[in-house]
Amino acid sequence: MGCITKHYLNEFSILGVWKIEEDINTLLDLVVLDNDEKKKYKGFSSNSRKLEFLSVRALLSELIGKEAKIVYNKNNKPFLRDGSRFISISHSHKLTAILLSTNEKVGLDLEYMSSNIAALAFKFLNRKEKVTKEHEDRKYHLYIHWCAKEALYKICDKEGISISKDITIEPFKVKESGEIKGQVNTDKINESFDLYYSKYNNYAIVWTKKNYENR
Question: pLDDT (tens digit, 9 = 90+) per residue, 77-127?
Fold first, then answer.
């Protein structure tokens, strides 16, 4: 299937999603791995992890060219080697997503809505957050909260943030897609963020971006 969406959010930012339907050899033919990437790739024991790794590189190549390379810091946060863009990556089940921006920090999360997430809600929700009681919308509503918190965790790039205590998603009425607001409050951070969510088949996708240039 390859790239199923290439969405320009504005003149600075682009969101891409890749559906993994190729086998490993097909994906290998679509990418050019340098020595560091080859070493990392050979270290994966599972085919699913290899497919994820290759799909990220194939999607990045589709979005901005084969010369783009991803490196990681000590916390395994991804960066582009040339520093030309901020990047956030997420993958779940058969989808891989990348959000890139030349001037805004970014955070992205993608989840396949498979589990009984209601049983885990106590681990990531706090008392300020409200989730619909409508059965047909409840799972999606919960996944939006989870993805939004993951996206905010990524954009803040800070260790020690509690998903449940330090990140709050303001109450919203769940729709197929929309805009929501989130707050991150710790001893070091007091920030408000706009987030955007959508559904693709049985996946929830949430992303956020923020310009810190003038801060």
Answer: 899 999 999 999 999 999 999 999 999 999 999 999 987 899 999 999 999
Kindly state whether residues 157 and 69 are assigned to the same domain.
Answer: no
Domain extent at residue 163: 109-210
Task: Tell me what percent of the chain is helix, strand and coil, each rounded to the nearest 5.
Answer: 30, 35, 40
Task: Report how far residue 125's alpha carbon sits from residue 127's, in angstroms, rounded to the nearest whole number.
Answer: 7
pLDDT band (50, 70, 90) for residue 75: confident
CA-based nearest residue to 30, from 41, 38, 22 = 22
Is 141 part of a structural domain of the chain? Answer: yes
Question: For residue 201, what are its two tokens?
Answer: 């088949």
> What pTM, to 2 d.p., does this model score?
0.93
CA-to-CA dists, residue 206 to 5, 97, 144, 176, 215, angstroms: 15, 10, 7, 12, 25
How far is CA 208 from its chain centroid? 9
Q: Where are the alpha helices (DSSP H) in 65-158?
A: 135-156
**Residue 50 counted as domain residue:** yes
Are residue 150 and residue 197 in the same domain, yes or no?
Answer: yes
Computed over its alpha carbons, how large is the radius of gyration of the chain? 17
Query: Phi first, then psi: what are they for 18, rounded to 5°?
Result: -120, 130
Non-local (6+) Cβ contacts of 111 within 8 A are: 92, 143, 146, 147, 203, 204
Domain boundary among 103, 137, 163: 103
Q: Same domain, yes or no, for 158 and 193?
A: yes
Number of domains in the chain: 2
